[in-house]
């Protein structure tokens, strides 16, 4: 039998590894949790007063457990050697080279972890796939481990995908809808599942911990993200119909959301979804389907991504069209740069798409986001553009500075603070006619029109 888990190592101190293992450390104070990463500056930040990621509630928990039973380290070998359970929470980005370029998941970091674990372990381990991976990835992981096993050492590989959303990670982790654990249908596999389950059982009701075979677990993660993204693309598709007909997508969403079979969540029409995972995981699902010779399935899920591109481009085009078909040298205020509220994460943020589109049309951007700094904005916008960024992009410390001399406000992120800004004050600083493009449907449009703004939004004609 597996002894009780007493030392956990988490490889990858990112948006998943950091919050997940911090919560485990806070709930299981008898377990020593060490989160390791090859990125030295990220680990230094985890050990400092300013954490590398912003997540509501995270800082308090880190501070209460750090140095007690929670450690952040670059000494990966030591942590791996000592651990009886290892989470692999490294990034699994879309491949940008070779076979499957632009679609398949790049598993090089996962494989590096497997080889490192195999080379340095002197005791048996439960190795847990926390990263999102293609179905059957655990098989490769197992094979690498087993082909390099030292005498007396055994491995059990589990799949334990993470379902947290950024911005609500701590709540999601403290009170998950479910915890999913996949493992082998052997005695050792079941014992390993029980060992991992016992960690979660400290705070998660047992009926919410579900166990499956490994492949179902891996595929459930891709499926969950595909369904969530599909819901957004579905409501966004309807938003285009609303704009053309006079229906209001918020009213449609409310009406369909009251059907208990559909439910009210995830029906917020927007400028399009962003974030590091929806696109990556859908591309991965499309690629897997193609490899399995299921082109109709691949095409079906590809359409969710196509609709998202359509939504982003529709919104960007509308900005230019509404502003008399030219925005050359016009200052435009972008409110929000993160891919959603309550995070500083900008990966695949629709704001990046909108900003690049407007810059290519010759606009000058004044950007404000409460949690994204100017270094990040410039990093995200650099590369493809033909303009000298420092001449055409300013990142402001507050929204009122960002409105000075501007023709239009474009809301890209649904930060709560944007709903309570003094829009009279914003208006007074702007050129006239002054425009608002609310890409998140969060502002009081009637009030803005009364102030004098020309307002455009998603999914309804004003
Ligand atoms: P991230 O980029 O924030 O963090 C990954 C970390 O792993 C990085 O700090 C990187 O330096 C480190 N790393 C990479 N290779 C390493 C190695 N060989 N040894 C040690 N450290 C290494 O990524 P993330 O957002 O935390 O996502 C991680 C995984 O979790 C992905 O597969 C993702 O799909 C999945 N996931 C993410 C979320 C989310 O909300 N971000 C939610 C659920 C699942
Ligand atoms: C998403 C899933 O919600 C998590 O369950 C999953 O674990 C995670 O991906 C992952 O695998 O990485 P996340 O991307 O952090 O989480 O955030 P979401 O709340 O899902 O939002 C994603 C994007 O969709 C954001 O740009 C958001 O603004 C947009 N969105 C969301 C909408 O446009 N409308 C909605 O109704 C909901």
Key phrases:
single chain, 462 residues, alpha/beta, 6-stranded parallel β-sheet, 14 strands, globular, binds nicotinamide-adenine-dinucleotide, binds uridine-5'-diphosphate-glucuronic acid, oxidoreductase, UDP-glucose 6-dehydrogenase activity, EC 1.1.1.22, NAD
Question: Quick check: average pLDDT?
Answer: 96
How would you sum up the major sheet?
A: 6 strands, parallel
Whole-number radius of gyration?
24 Å
Bound molecules: nicotinamide-adenine-dinucleotide, uridine-5'-diphosphate-glucuronic acid
Widest sheet, order of strands: 3-2-1-4-5-6
Tell me, briefly, the overall form: globular
Distance between the termini: 66 Å
Please give the share of residues in helix: 40-55%
Beta-strand fraction estimate:
5-15%
Oligomer: single chain
The number of distinct helices, counting runs of at least 4 residues, comes to: 18
Q: Which stretches of 5+ consecutive residues score pLDDT under 50? A: none
Number of strands: 14
Coarse structural class = alpha/beta
Keywords: NAD, Oxidoreductase
Organism: Artemia franciscana
Domain UDP-glucose/GDP-mannose dehydrogenase C-terminal: 333-445
Catalytic activity: UDP-alpha-D-glucose + 2 NAD(+) + H2O = UDP-alpha-D-glucuronate + 2 NADH + 3 H(+)
